[in-house]
Amino acid sequence: MTDDAPKPVLRLKSQKFREARQSDWRALSTQLDKVERRGLGSFSIDELLNLPLLYRSAMSSLSMAQSISLDRNMITYLQALCVRAYVYVYGPQTRFKDVLYSFFVLGWPRAVRKLGGEIVLAFATLVAGAIAGWLMCAHDSTWYNVFLPGEQGSRGLDSSAEDLRKTIGGNPENHALSPFAVFLMTHNVGVAISTFAFGAVFGLPTFALTLYTGITLGAMVWLFAQQGLGFEFAAWLTIHGTTELFALVIAAGCGFHIARRLMFPGDVTRKQALREAGTLTGTAMIGVAVMLTVAGCLEGIGRQMITDPFARIGIGAVMLTIWGLYYTSVGRRKPGEGA
Amino acid sequence: MAKAGKRDLASDAPYGEIGRTATEILTPEGVVLPFINATFGERVGALLLDWLIMILAPVVVVIIWLILPLEHVFDGGKNKALGSFVLIVAMLFLFFLRSGYFIIFEMGARAATPGKRVMKLRVISHDGGRLTPAAVFTRNALREVELYLPVTLIFAWSANHSAGSWLAFLWALALLLLPLFNKQHARLGDFLAGTRVVHMPKASLSYDLVDLEGDRNLGLSFTPDQLAYGEMELTVLEQVLRERKPAVMKAVAARIKARINWVDPKIDPPGDETFLRAYYGALRAHLEAKMLLGRRRKDKHDAPV
Question: Where are the membrane-spanning stretches (chain A) (predicted)?
Answer without folding.
Answer: 119-136, 180-202, 209-227, 233-256, 277-298, 310-328
